[in-house]
Design a protein that fits this description.
By secondary structure, the chain is α/β, with parallel strands linked by helices. Helix content is about 45%, strand content about 15%.
Protein backbone atom coordinates (compact mmCIF):
# COMPACT_ATOMS: atom_id res chain seq x y z
CA UNK A 1 0.00 0.00 0.00
CA UNK A 2 1.19 3.50 -0.84
CA UNK A 3 0.01 6.92 0.23
CA UNK A 4 -1.34 8.59 -2.92
CA UNK A 5 -2.14 12.30 -3.04
CA UNK A 6 -4.61 13.08 -5.80
CA UNK A 7 -4.31 16.86 -6.14
CA UNK A 8 -7.07 18.19 -8.36
CA UNK A 9 -7.09 21.64 -9.98
CA UNK A 10 -9.17 24.25 -8.17
CA UNK A 11 -12.15 25.49 -10.25
CA UNK A 12 -12.55 29.25 -10.19
CA UNK A 13 -15.65 30.50 -8.35
CA UNK A 14 -16.73 33.32 -10.67
CA UNK A 15 -19.39 31.20 -12.38
CA UNK A 16 -20.56 27.63 -13.01
CA UNK A 17 -18.12 25.22 -14.63
CA UNK A 18 -18.58 23.75 -18.10
CA UNK A 19 -17.87 20.22 -19.35
CA UNK A 20 -14.48 21.29 -20.73
CA UNK A 21 -13.35 21.99 -17.18
CA UNK A 22 -14.33 18.58 -15.79
CA UNK A 23 -12.77 16.88 -18.82
CA UNK A 24 -9.44 18.39 -17.78
CA UNK A 25 -9.41 18.01 -14.01
CA UNK A 26 -12.55 16.22 -12.82
CA UNK A 27 -13.17 12.86 -14.44
CA UNK A 28 -9.48 11.90 -14.98
CA UNK A 29 -8.63 12.52 -11.32
CA UNK A 30 -11.66 10.58 -10.09
CA UNK A 31 -11.00 7.58 -12.36
CA UNK A 32 -7.43 7.44 -11.06
CA UNK A 33 -8.43 7.90 -7.40
CA UNK A 34 -11.20 5.30 -7.54
CA UNK A 35 -8.90 2.75 -9.14
CA UNK A 36 -6.08 3.42 -6.66
CA UNK A 37 -8.45 2.93 -3.72
CA UNK A 38 -9.74 -0.33 -5.21
CA UNK A 39 -6.13 -1.46 -5.72
CA UNK A 40 -5.47 -1.01 -2.00
CA UNK A 41 -3.73 2.37 -1.80
CA UNK A 42 -4.44 5.07 0.79
CA UNK A 43 -5.69 7.92 -1.40
CA UNK A 44 -6.21 11.52 -0.33
CA UNK A 45 -8.11 13.41 -3.05
CA UNK A 46 -8.35 17.15 -2.36
CA UNK A 47 -9.35 20.38 -4.05
CA UNK A 48 -11.78 23.27 -3.65
CA UNK A 49 -12.96 26.50 -5.23
CA UNK A 50 -10.37 29.19 -6.01
CA UNK A 51 -11.96 32.42 -4.76
CA UNK A 52 -9.43 35.26 -4.86
CA UNK A 53 -8.22 37.49 -7.68
CA UNK A 54 -9.56 40.10 -10.06
CA UNK A 55 -12.16 38.02 -11.96
CA UNK A 56 -14.12 37.62 -8.74
CA UNK A 57 -13.97 41.38 -8.16
CA UNK A 58 -15.02 42.20 -11.71
CA UNK A 59 -17.96 39.76 -11.69
CA UNK A 60 -19.05 40.91 -8.24
CA UNK A 61 -19.08 44.53 -9.44
CA UNK A 62 -21.19 43.57 -12.45
CA UNK A 63 -23.72 41.86 -10.21
CA UNK A 64 -23.63 44.52 -7.50
CA UNK A 65 -22.64 42.16 -4.69
CA UNK A 66 -19.63 41.74 -2.40
CA UNK A 67 -16.86 39.41 -3.64
CA UNK A 68 -17.49 36.94 -0.81
CA UNK A 69 -21.20 36.79 -1.65
CA UNK A 70 -20.38 35.95 -5.25
CA UNK A 71 -17.82 33.31 -4.20
CA UNK A 72 -20.31 31.78 -1.76
CA UNK A 73 -22.92 31.46 -4.50
CA UNK A 74 -20.71 29.75 -7.06
CA UNK A 75 -18.90 27.65 -4.48
CA UNK A 76 -22.22 25.97 -3.75
CA UNK A 77 -23.10 25.57 -7.43
CA UNK A 78 -19.74 23.96 -8.18
CA UNK A 79 -19.91 21.71 -5.11
CA UNK A 80 -23.34 20.42 -6.15
CA UNK A 81 -22.29 19.82 -9.76
CA UNK A 82 -19.08 17.96 -8.95
CA UNK A 83 -20.80 15.79 -6.35
CA UNK A 84 -23.55 14.88 -8.81
CA UNK A 85 -20.89 13.89 -11.34
CA UNK A 86 -19.59 11.47 -8.71
CA UNK A 87 -16.16 12.95 -7.99
CA UNK A 88 -14.96 11.26 -4.79
CA UNK A 89 -13.08 14.02 -3.00
CA UNK A 90 -11.93 13.31 0.52
CA UNK A 91 -12.27 17.06 0.89
CA UNK A 92 -13.39 19.69 -1.58
CA UNK A 93 -13.14 23.00 0.25
CA UNK A 94 -12.34 26.63 -0.67
CA UNK A 95 -9.53 29.20 -0.53
CA UNK A 96 -11.37 31.71 1.68
CA UNK A 97 -11.07 29.58 4.83
CA UNK A 98 -8.94 30.83 7.72
CA UNK A 99 -7.06 27.53 7.59
CA UNK A 100 -6.03 28.22 3.99
CA UNK A 101 -4.96 31.76 4.87
CA UNK A 102 -2.71 30.42 7.64
CA UNK A 103 -1.06 27.73 5.48
CA UNK A 104 -0.52 30.08 2.53
CA UNK A 105 1.03 32.73 4.77
CA UNK A 106 3.30 30.11 6.37
CA UNK A 107 4.56 29.09 2.92
CA UNK A 108 5.21 32.72 1.97
CA UNK A 109 7.03 33.55 5.22
CA UNK A 110 9.42 30.60 4.99
CA UNK A 111 10.14 31.07 1.29
CA UNK A 112 10.92 34.70 2.14
CA UNK A 113 13.03 33.72 5.15
CA UNK A 114 15.07 31.38 2.94
CA UNK A 115 15.77 34.25 0.55
CA UNK A 116 13.62 33.17 -2.40
CA UNK A 117 11.11 36.04 -2.17
CA UNK A 118 12.81 39.20 -3.38
CA UNK A 119 11.37 42.71 -3.32
CA UNK A 120 11.55 44.55 -6.64
CA UNK A 121 10.17 47.66 -8.28
CA UNK A 122 8.09 46.74 -11.28
CA UNK A 123 5.64 48.34 -13.65
CA UNK A 124 1.95 47.93 -12.96
CA UNK A 125 -1.04 48.77 -15.12
CA UNK A 126 -3.71 51.28 -14.08
CA UNK A 127 -7.11 51.77 -15.65
CA UNK A 128 -7.28 55.44 -16.74
CA UNK A 129 -11.06 55.57 -16.29
CA UNK A 130 -11.26 54.07 -12.78
CA UNK A 131 -7.77 54.53 -11.36
CA UNK A 132 -7.78 50.89 -10.25
CA UNK A 133 -5.00 48.41 -10.85
CA UNK A 134 -5.41 46.15 -13.85
CA UNK A 135 -3.95 42.70 -13.11
CA UNK A 136 -1.88 41.07 -15.81
CA UNK A 137 -4.60 38.60 -16.76
CA UNK A 138 -6.94 41.47 -17.56
CA UNK A 139 -4.58 42.96 -20.13
CA UNK A 140 -4.42 41.60 -23.64
CA UNK A 141 -2.19 42.41 -26.57
CA UNK A 142 0.22 41.12 -29.18
CA UNK A 143 2.82 38.66 -27.88
CA UNK A 144 6.33 40.12 -28.27
CA UNK A 145 7.72 36.63 -28.93
CA UNK A 146 5.31 34.89 -31.33
CA UNK A 147 3.01 37.81 -32.35
CA UNK A 148 -0.13 36.02 -31.16
CA UNK A 149 -2.76 38.81 -31.07
CA UNK A 150 -4.56 37.67 -27.89
CA UNK A 151 -1.68 37.13 -25.45
CA UNK A 152 -2.44 37.82 -21.78
CA UNK A 153 -0.35 40.06 -19.59
CA UNK A 154 1.11 37.13 -17.65
CA UNK A 155 1.40 34.41 -20.28
CA UNK A 156 0.91 33.74 -23.97
CA UNK A 157 -1.38 30.75 -24.47
CA UNK A 158 -0.04 30.31 -28.00
CA UNK A 159 3.70 29.93 -27.30
CA UNK A 160 3.48 29.29 -23.54
CA UNK A 161 6.03 31.93 -22.54
CA UNK A 162 5.69 33.97 -19.35
CA UNK A 163 5.21 37.67 -20.02
CA UNK A 164 4.95 41.02 -18.30
CA UNK A 165 1.98 43.13 -19.28
CA UNK A 166 4.27 46.05 -20.16
CA UNK A 167 5.96 43.86 -22.79
CA UNK A 168 2.79 43.40 -24.82
CA UNK A 169 2.45 45.27 -28.07
CA UNK A 170 -0.77 47.32 -28.33
CA UNK A 171 -1.93 46.44 -24.80
CA UNK A 172 -5.61 46.88 -23.98
CA UNK A 173 -7.91 46.22 -21.05
CA UNK A 174 -10.02 43.10 -21.41
CA UNK A 175 -12.69 44.80 -19.29
CA UNK A 176 -13.39 47.88 -21.39
CA UNK A 177 -10.80 47.91 -24.19
CA UNK A 178 -8.97 51.04 -23.03
CA UNK A 179 -5.18 51.37 -23.13
CA UNK A 180 -3.72 51.00 -19.63
CA UNK A 181 -1.30 53.42 -17.99
CA UNK A 182 1.86 51.77 -16.63
CA UNK A 183 3.32 53.04 -13.34
CA UNK A 184 5.98 51.81 -10.90
CA UNK A 185 4.96 49.65 -7.92
CA UNK A 186 6.68 47.43 -5.33
CA UNK A 187 6.12 43.68 -5.24
CA UNK A 188 7.62 40.42 -4.03
CA UNK A 189 8.93 38.06 -6.69
CA UNK A 190 9.64 34.35 -6.46
CA UNK A 191 13.34 34.08 -7.35
CA UNK A 192 12.96 31.38 -10.00
CA UNK A 193 16.55 31.85 -11.31
CA UNK A 194 17.82 30.82 -7.84
CA UNK A 195 15.54 27.78 -7.99
CA UNK A 196 16.03 26.88 -11.67
CA UNK A 197 18.79 24.31 -11.18
CA UNK A 198 16.79 22.51 -8.50
CA UNK A 199 13.65 22.53 -10.69
CA UNK A 200 15.68 21.21 -13.65
CA UNK A 201 17.21 18.45 -11.54
CA UNK A 202 13.76 17.42 -10.34
CA UNK A 203 12.37 17.41 -13.90
CA UNK A 204 15.24 15.18 -15.02
CA UNK A 205 13.89 12.48 -12.69
CA UNK A 206 10.37 12.71 -14.20
CA UNK A 207 10.87 10.50 -17.26
CA UNK A 208 7.45 8.80 -17.19
CA UNK A 209 5.26 11.90 -17.66
CA UNK A 210 3.14 12.48 -20.74
CA UNK A 211 5.68 13.72 -23.32
CA UNK A 212 3.80 16.95 -24.10
CA UNK A 213 3.75 17.91 -20.40
CA UNK A 214 7.38 17.05 -19.76
CA UNK A 215 8.68 18.78 -22.89
CA UNK A 216 6.68 21.92 -22.15
CA UNK A 217 7.93 21.96 -18.55
CA UNK A 218 11.56 21.62 -19.58
CA UNK A 219 11.18 24.36 -22.19
CA UNK A 220 10.00 26.75 -19.47
CA UNK A 221 13.52 26.68 -18.03
CA UNK A 222 14.99 28.25 -21.16
CA UNK A 223 13.84 31.72 -20.07
CA UNK A 224 13.55 31.81 -16.28
CA UNK A 225 12.83 35.14 -14.63
CA UNK A 226 11.57 36.14 -11.18
CA UNK A 227 7.77 35.87 -11.01
CA UNK A 228 5.62 38.38 -9.10
CA UNK A 229 3.89 36.76 -6.13
CA UNK A 230 2.01 39.82 -4.82
CA UNK A 231 -0.55 42.06 -6.49
CA UNK A 232 -2.05 45.53 -6.15
CA UNK A 233 -5.52 44.36 -5.18
CA UNK A 234 -7.69 44.46 -2.08
CA UNK A 235 -9.32 41.01 -2.43
CA UNK A 236 -7.04 38.20 -1.30
CA UNK A 237 -4.69 37.01 1.41
CA UNK A 238 -2.65 39.72 3.19
CA UNK A 239 1.12 39.66 2.70
CA UNK A 240 2.38 38.27 6.05
CA UNK A 241 5.29 40.65 6.61
CA UNK A 242 5.65 43.76 8.74
CA UNK A 243 4.81 46.88 6.75
CA UNK A 244 2.88 44.86 4.18
CA UNK A 245 0.28 43.00 6.22
CA UNK A 246 -1.52 46.21 7.13
CA UNK A 247 -1.52 47.52 3.53
CA UNK A 248 -5.08 47.05 2.22
CA UNK A 249 -3.97 47.37 -1.41
CA UNK A 250 -1.38 44.58 -1.43
CA UNK A 251 -2.30 40.89 -1.47
CA UNK A 252 -0.72 37.56 -2.34
CA UNK A 253 -1.01 36.67 -6.02
CA UNK A 254 -4.05 34.44 -6.49
CA UNK A 255 -1.93 31.78 -8.18
CA UNK A 256 0.50 31.74 -5.25
CA UNK A 257 -2.26 30.90 -2.83
CA UNK A 258 -4.28 28.65 -5.18
CA UNK A 259 -1.56 26.02 -5.55
CA UNK A 260 -0.94 26.12 -1.79
CA UNK A 261 -4.54 24.90 -1.60
CA UNK A 262 -3.45 21.31 -2.20
CA UNK A 263 -1.53 21.47 1.06
CA UNK A 264 -4.04 23.54 3.02
CA UNK A 265 -6.92 21.25 1.97
CA UNK A 266 -4.91 18.26 3.19
CA UNK A 267 -4.39 20.03 6.51
CA UNK A 268 -8.08 20.91 6.76
CA UNK A 269 -9.05 17.30 5.99
CA UNK A 270 -6.79 16.05 8.80
CA UNK A 271 -8.16 18.62 11.23
CA UNK A 272 -11.73 17.57 10.41
CA UNK A 273 -10.74 13.92 10.89
CA UNK A 274 -9.52 14.89 14.36
CA UNK A 275 -12.93 16.40 15.12
CA UNK A 276 -14.60 13.12 14.16
CA UNK A 277 -12.49 11.28 16.73
CA UNK A 278 -13.45 13.68 19.52
CA UNK A 279 -10.49 16.04 19.18
CA UNK A 280 -10.61 19.81 19.02
CA UNK A 281 -9.54 20.06 15.37
CA UNK A 282 -6.50 22.17 16.12
CA UNK A 283 -3.45 21.89 13.86
CA UNK A 284 -1.38 20.48 16.74
CA UNK A 285 -3.69 17.57 17.59
CA UNK A 286 -2.26 14.10 16.91
CA UNK A 287 -4.90 13.01 14.39
CA UNK A 288 -4.68 16.44 12.74
CA UNK A 289 -1.09 15.59 11.77
CA UNK A 290 -2.21 12.84 9.39
CA UNK A 291 -1.73 15.11 6.38
CA UNK A 292 2.01 14.58 6.87
CA UNK A 293 1.63 10.98 5.65
CA UNK A 294 1.10 12.39 2.15
CA UNK A 295 3.37 15.45 2.34
CA UNK A 296 6.41 14.59 4.51
CA UNK A 297 6.87 10.88 3.78
CA UNK A 298 9.37 10.59 0.88
CA UNK A 299 7.73 7.30 -0.18
CA UNK A 300 4.34 8.96 -0.72
CA UNK A 301 3.28 9.67 -4.31
CA UNK A 302 1.44 12.76 -5.57
CA UNK A 303 -0.43 13.30 -8.84
CA UNK A 304 -1.68 16.72 -9.97
CA UNK A 305 -4.59 16.89 -12.42
CA UNK A 306 -5.38 19.95 -14.58
CA UNK A 307 -5.82 21.36 -18.07
CA UNK A 308 -2.82 22.29 -20.18
CA UNK A 309 -3.18 26.03 -19.54
CA UNK A 310 -2.10 25.40 -15.94
CA UNK A 311 1.08 23.39 -16.56
CA UNK A 312 3.34 26.37 -15.81
CA UNK A 313 1.95 26.78 -12.31
CA UNK A 314 2.26 23.08 -11.46
CA UNK A 315 5.58 22.15 -13.04
CA UNK A 316 7.46 25.39 -12.30
CA UNK A 317 5.76 27.82 -9.89
CA UNK A 318 4.47 25.29 -7.33
CA UNK A 319 7.67 23.19 -7.36
CA UNK A 320 9.57 26.49 -7.00
CA UNK A 321 7.50 27.41 -3.95
CA UNK A 322 8.04 23.96 -2.42
CA UNK A 323 11.79 23.99 -3.09
CA UNK A 324 12.01 27.51 -1.67
CA UNK A 325 10.11 26.43 1.44
CA UNK A 326 12.38 23.40 1.84
CA UNK A 327 15.51 25.55 1.37
CA UNK A 328 16.65 23.50 -1.62
CA UNK A 329 17.56 26.21 -4.13
CA UNK A 330 20.97 27.73 -4.78
CA UNK A 331 20.60 30.04 -1.74
CA UNK A 332 20.12 27.16 0.70
CA UNK A 333 17.83 27.49 3.70
CA UNK A 334 15.78 25.15 5.86
CA UNK A 335 12.19 23.88 5.95
CA UNK A 336 9.58 25.68 8.02
CA UNK A 337 7.35 24.18 10.70
CA UNK A 338 5.41 22.12 8.12
CA UNK A 339 8.55 20.08 7.49
CA UNK A 340 10.16 18.98 4.23
CA UNK A 341 7.35 19.01 1.64
CA UNK A 342 7.17 16.52 -1.24
CA UNK A 343 7.35 17.71 -4.83
CA UNK A 344 4.84 16.33 -7.37
CA UNK A 345 5.38 12.79 -8.56
CA UNK A 346 3.57 13.61 -11.79
CA UNK A 347 1.82 16.57 -13.36
CA UNK A 348 -1.07 14.99 -15.25
CA UNK A 349 -2.26 17.58 -17.74
CA UNK A 350 -5.00 17.10 -20.30
CA UNK A 351 -5.36 19.10 -23.49
CA UNK A 352 -8.49 21.11 -24.38
CA UNK A 353 -11.97 19.76 -24.95
CA UNK A 354 -13.56 21.92 -27.64
CA UNK A 355 -17.20 21.98 -28.65
CA UNK A 356 -18.25 21.56 -32.27
CA UNK A 357 -14.82 22.72 -33.45
CA UNK A 358 -14.65 25.84 -31.26
CA UNK A 359 -13.00 26.55 -27.92
CA UNK A 360 -15.40 26.87 -25.00
CA UNK A 361 -16.19 30.52 -24.39
CA UNK A 362 -18.69 31.64 -21.79
CA UNK A 363 -18.65 35.22 -23.13
CA UNK A 364 -19.47 34.05 -26.66
CA UNK A 365 -22.06 31.55 -25.50
CA UNK A 366 -20.07 28.55 -26.74
CA UNK A 367 -20.58 26.60 -23.54
CA UNK A 368 -22.25 23.51 -22.10
CA UNK A 369 -22.47 23.80 -18.33
CA UNK A 370 -22.02 20.73 -16.15
CA UNK A 371 -25.28 21.48 -14.35
CA UNK A 372 -27.27 21.65 -17.58
CA UNK A 373 -25.67 18.46 -18.86
CA UNK A 374 -26.46 16.51 -15.71
CA UNK A 375 -30.03 17.81 -15.55
CA UNK A 376 -30.82 16.12 -18.88
CA UNK A 377 -28.41 13.20 -19.21
CA UNK A 378 -26.97 10.45 -17.03
CA UNK A 379 -23.69 11.34 -15.31
CA UNK A 380 -22.06 8.12 -16.51
CA UNK A 381 -22.83 9.02 -20.14
CA UNK A 382 -20.77 12.20 -19.73
CA UNK A 383 -18.07 10.37 -17.78
CA UNK A 384 -17.88 7.73 -20.51
CA UNK A 385 -17.48 10.30 -23.28
CA UNK A 386 -14.70 12.09 -21.39
CA UNK A 387 -12.87 8.86 -20.56
CA UNK A 388 -13.21 7.33 -24.03
CA UNK A 389 -12.92 10.41 -26.26
CA UNK A 390 -11.58 13.16 -24.01
CA UNK A 391 -8.50 15.36 -24.42
CA UNK A 392 -5.99 13.06 -22.76
CA UNK A 393 -2.97 13.82 -24.95
CA UNK A 394 -4.38 16.02 -27.72
CA UNK A 395 -7.27 18.43 -28.13
CA UNK A 396 -10.60 16.65 -28.52
CA UNK A 397 -13.95 17.77 -29.89
CA UNK A 398 -17.33 17.34 -28.23
CA UNK A 399 -20.29 17.21 -30.59
CA UNK A 400 -23.80 16.23 -29.68
CA UNK A 401 -23.88 13.76 -32.55
CA UNK A 402 -20.77 11.96 -31.26
CA UNK A 403 -22.12 12.01 -27.71
CA UNK A 404 -25.30 10.35 -29.00
CA UNK A 405 -23.36 7.77 -31.04
CA UNK A 406 -21.10 6.73 -28.18
CA UNK A 407 -23.98 6.58 -25.71
CA UNK A 408 -26.30 4.59 -27.97
CA UNK A 409 -23.82 2.34 -29.79
CA UNK A 410 -21.32 1.66 -27.01
CA UNK A 411 -23.07 2.15 -23.67
CA UNK A 412 -26.65 1.18 -24.53
CA UNK A 413 -26.16 -1.38 -27.32
CA UNK A 414 -22.87 -2.78 -26.06
CA UNK A 415 -22.60 -2.79 -22.28
CA UNK A 416 -26.18 -2.00 -21.25
CA UNK A 417 -27.64 -4.61 -23.58
CA UNK A 418 -25.29 -7.28 -22.23
CA UNK A 419 -26.39 -6.54 -18.67
CA UNK A 420 -30.08 -6.49 -19.55
CA UNK A 421 -29.92 -9.64 -21.70
CA UNK A 422 -28.04 -11.61 -19.05
CA UNK A 423 -30.31 -10.53 -16.19
CA UNK A 424 -33.45 -11.17 -18.24
CA UNK A 425 -32.37 -14.71 -19.19
CA UNK A 426 -31.51 -15.52 -15.57
CA UNK A 427 -34.80 -14.04 -14.34
CA UNK A 428 -36.96 -15.87 -16.89
CA UNK A 429 -35.27 -19.24 -16.71
CA UNK A 430 -34.29 -19.59 -13.04
CA UNK A 431 -35.38 -16.53 -11.06
CA UNK A 432 -31.97 -16.67 -9.40
CA UNK A 433 -28.34 -17.05 -10.38
CA UNK A 434 -28.05 -20.76 -11.23
CA UNK A 435 -25.50 -23.24 -9.96
CA UNK A 436 -23.00 -24.06 -12.72
CA UNK A 437 -22.18 -27.54 -13.89
CA UNK A 438 -18.88 -28.53 -15.50
CA UNK A 439 -17.55 -25.64 -17.56
CA UNK A 440 -16.57 -26.02 -21.18
CA UNK A 441 -13.32 -24.73 -22.68
CA UNK A 442 -15.19 -21.66 -23.95
CA UNK A 443 -16.58 -20.94 -20.47
CA UNK A 444 -13.16 -21.16 -18.86
CA UNK A 445 -11.50 -19.05 -21.55
CA UNK A 446 -14.08 -16.29 -21.11
CA UNK A 447 -13.59 -16.13 -17.35
CA UNK A 448 -9.83 -16.18 -17.77
CA UNK A 449 -10.18 -13.22 -20.14
CA UNK A 450 -12.32 -11.18 -17.75
CA UNK A 451 -9.97 -11.99 -14.86
CA UNK A 452 -6.96 -10.87 -16.93
CA UNK A 453 -8.78 -7.59 -17.57
CA UNK A 454 -8.02 -6.44 -14.02
CA UNK A 455 -4.30 -6.47 -14.72
CA UNK A 456 -4.51 -4.93 -18.18
CA UNK A 457 -6.98 -2.14 -17.31
CA UNK A 458 -5.32 -1.38 -13.98
CA UNK A 459 -1.86 -1.12 -15.51
CA UNK A 460 -3.15 1.46 -18.02
CA UNK A 461 -5.00 3.59 -15.43
CA UNK A 462 -1.93 3.62 -13.19
CA UNK A 463 0.19 5.25 -15.93
CA UNK A 464 -2.53 7.79 -16.90
CA UNK A 465 -3.62 6.06 -20.13
CA UNK A 466 -7.31 6.19 -19.35
CA UNK A 467 -8.57 6.19 -22.93
CA UNK A 468 -6.71 2.96 -23.56
CA UNK A 469 -7.90 1.59 -20.21
CA UNK A 470 -11.60 2.09 -20.86
CA UNK A 471 -11.05 0.83 -24.40
CA UNK A 472 -9.62 -2.38 -22.93
CA UNK A 473 -12.55 -2.69 -20.52
CA UNK A 474 -15.02 -2.28 -23.39
CA UNK A 475 -13.06 -4.84 -25.43
CA UNK A 476 -13.70 -7.31 -22.61
CA UNK A 477 -17.41 -6.40 -22.79
CA UNK A 478 -17.42 -7.13 -26.53
CA UNK A 479 -15.78 -10.52 -25.91
CA UNK A 480 -18.53 -11.38 -23.42
CA UNK A 481 -21.13 -10.35 -26.00
CA UNK A 482 -19.40 -12.58 -28.55
CA UNK A 483 -19.54 -15.49 -26.10
CA UNK A 484 -23.28 -14.97 -25.65
CA UNK A 485 -23.82 -14.95 -29.42
CA UNK A 486 -21.83 -18.17 -29.78
CA UNK A 487 -23.47 -20.03 -26.90
CA UNK A 488 -27.03 -18.91 -27.76
CA UNK A 489 -28.45 -19.67 -24.29
CA UNK A 490 -32.00 -19.03 -25.52
CA UNK A 491 -31.72 -22.32 -27.47
CA UNK A 492 -30.73 -24.37 -24.40
CA UNK A 493 -34.08 -24.53 -22.60
CA UNK A 494 -34.20 -28.34 -22.75
CA UNK A 495 -30.64 -28.70 -21.39
CA UNK A 496 -31.06 -27.14 -17.96
CA UNK A 497 -27.58 -28.02 -16.71
CA UNK A 498 -25.84 -26.46 -19.71
CA UNK A 499 -28.17 -23.45 -19.63
CA UNK A 500 -27.41 -22.92 -15.94
CA UNK A 501 -23.66 -23.15 -16.58
CA UNK A 502 -23.78 -20.64 -19.45
CA UNK A 503 -25.94 -18.19 -17.49
CA UNK A 504 -23.72 -18.47 -14.42
CA UNK A 505 -20.68 -17.83 -16.63
CA UNK A 506 -22.41 -14.83 -18.18
CA UNK A 507 -23.38 -13.50 -14.75
CA UNK A 508 -19.81 -13.80 -13.47
CA UNK A 509 -18.44 -12.12 -16.59
CA UNK A 510 -20.92 -9.25 -16.24
CA UNK A 511 -19.99 -8.82 -12.57
CA UNK A 512 -16.32 -8.72 -13.59
CA UNK A 513 -17.04 -6.11 -16.26
CA UNK A 514 -18.99 -3.92 -13.86
CA UNK A 515 -15.94 -3.92 -11.58
CA UNK A 516 -13.57 -3.13 -14.46
CA UNK A 517 -15.80 -0.19 -15.39
CA UNK A 518 -16.41 1.02 -11.82
CA UNK A 519 -13.71 3.75 -11.80
CA UNK A 520 -15.12 5.16 -15.04
CA UNK A 521 -18.87 4.52 -14.60
CA UNK A 522 -19.48 4.33 -10.85
CA UNK A 523 -23.22 5.05 -10.90
CA UNK A 524 -24.18 2.33 -13.40
CA UNK A 525 -21.56 -0.13 -12.13
CA UNK A 526 -23.12 0.02 -8.69
CA UNK A 527 -26.54 -0.66 -10.27
CA UNK A 528 -25.18 -3.76 -11.99
CA UNK A 529 -23.42 -4.83 -8.81
CA UNK A 530 -26.70 -4.64 -6.87
CA UNK A 531 -28.73 -6.27 -9.65
CA UNK A 532 -26.54 -9.38 -9.61
CA UNK A 533 -26.29 -9.42 -5.82
CA UNK A 534 -22.50 -9.42 -5.79
CA UNK A 535 -21.27 -9.57 -2.17
CA UNK A 536 -19.62 -6.52 -0.63
CA UNK A 537 -19.39 -2.88 -1.74
CA UNK A 538 -18.22 -1.49 -5.06
CA UNK A 539 -18.30 2.21 -5.98
CA UNK A 540 -19.37 4.70 -3.29
CA UNK A 541 -20.59 8.19 -4.08
CA UNK A 542 -19.42 11.44 -2.49
CA UNK A 543 -21.62 13.40 -0.10
CA UNK A 544 -22.09 17.11 0.55
CA UNK A 545 -21.73 18.22 4.16
CA UNK A 546 -22.47 21.63 5.63
CA UNK A 547 -19.55 22.61 7.88
CA UNK A 548 -18.34 25.53 9.95
CA UNK A 549 -14.97 27.16 9.29
CA UNK A 550 -12.48 25.56 11.68
CA UNK A 551 -11.10 28.94 12.73
CA UNK A 552 -14.12 31.24 12.29
CA UNK A 553 -17.37 30.01 13.80
CA UNK A 554 -19.33 32.74 12.00
CA UNK A 555 -18.72 31.18 8.58
CA UNK A 556 -20.37 28.05 7.18
CA UNK A 557 -19.99 26.42 3.79
CA UNK A 558 -20.57 23.11 1.97
CA UNK A 559 -17.79 20.61 1.33
CA UNK A 560 -17.62 17.41 -0.69
CA UNK A 561 -16.37 14.44 1.28
CA UNK A 562 -17.08 10.73 1.61
CA UNK A 563 -16.30 7.38 3.16
CA UNK A 564 -13.95 5.43 0.88
CA UNK A 565 -12.63 2.49 2.91
CA UNK A 566 -11.53 -0.61 1.03
CA UNK A 567 -13.73 -3.55 1.93
CA UNK A 568 -16.13 -1.34 3.89
CA UNK A 569 -17.43 1.01 1.20
CA UNK A 570 -15.01 0.40 -1.71
CA UNK A 571 -14.78 -2.86 -3.62
CA UNK A 572 -11.42 -4.51 -4.30
CA UNK A 573 -9.83 -4.48 -7.77
CA UNK A 574 -10.32 -8.20 -8.30
CA UNK A 575 -13.02 -10.72 -9.07
CA UNK A 576 -15.74 -11.30 -6.50
CA UNK A 577 -17.71 -14.47 -7.17
CA UNK A 578 -21.42 -14.22 -7.86
CA UNK A 579 -23.42 -16.44 -5.51
CA UNK A 580 -25.71 -19.18 -6.90
CA UNK A 581 -29.19 -18.83 -5.50
CA UNK A 582 -29.10 -15.01 -5.47
CA UNK A 583 -32.58 -13.82 -6.57
CA UNK A 584 -32.69 -12.04 -9.91
CA UNK A 585 -35.41 -9.44 -10.39
CA UNK A 586 -36.68 -8.37 -13.79
CA UNK A 587 -34.13 -5.78 -14.91
CA UNK A 588 -34.63 -2.22 -16.11
CA UNK A 589 -32.25 -0.62 -18.62
CA UNK A 590 -29.25 0.97 -16.91
CA UNK A 591 -28.64 3.46 -19.72
CA UNK A 592 -31.08 5.75 -21.51
CA UNK A 593 -30.97 5.78 -25.29
CA UNK A 594 -30.63 9.30 -26.69
CA UNK A 595 -33.26 10.20 -29.25
CA UNK A 596 -32.66 12.25 -32.37
CA UNK A 597 -35.17 14.79 -31.06
CA UNK A 598 -33.30 15.27 -27.78
CA UNK A 599 -30.00 15.79 -29.60
CA UNK A 600 -31.61 18.20 -32.06
CA UNK A 601 -32.87 20.23 -29.09
CA UNK A 602 -29.35 20.40 -27.65
CA UNK A 603 -27.86 21.51 -30.97
CA UNK A 604 -30.43 24.30 -31.21
CA UNK A 605 -29.83 25.26 -27.59
CA UNK A 606 -26.10 25.56 -28.27
CA UNK A 607 -26.72 27.68 -31.37
CA UNK A 608 -28.96 29.94 -29.31
Amino acid sequence: MSHILSAVAWPYANGPRHIGHVAGFGVPSDVFSRYMRMAGHDVLMVSGTDEHGTPILVQAEREGVAPQVLADRYNRVIVEDLAQLGLTYDLFTRTTTRNHYAVAQELFRQVHANGYMIEQTTVGAISPSTGRTLPDRYIEGICPICSYPHARGDQCDNCGNQLDAAELKEPRSRINGETPIFTETEHFFLDLPALADAIAAWLETRSNWRPNVLNFSRNLLEDVRPRAMTRDIDWGIPVPLAGWEENPGKRLYVWFDAVVGYLSASVEWARREDLKTGGDGSMNAETAQRWREWWNDPMALSYYFMGKDNITFHSQIWPGELLGYNGEGSLGGEPGRLGHLNLPTEVVSSEYLNVAGEQFSTSRGVVIYVRDMLSRFQPDALRYFIAAAGPESSDADFTWEEFQRRTNDELVAGWGNLVNRTATLVHKNFGEIPTPGERSTEDRELLELTQAGFTRVGDLVRVQRQRAAIGEAMRVVSEVNRYVSQQQPWTLKTDRERLGTVLHTMSQAVADCSRLLAPFLPHSSDQVHDLFGVPGPLAPQPVIEEVTDLDDATRAYPVITGDYRLGETVGAWDRVDVVPGTPMDKPSPIFTKLTDEAIADEIERLKG
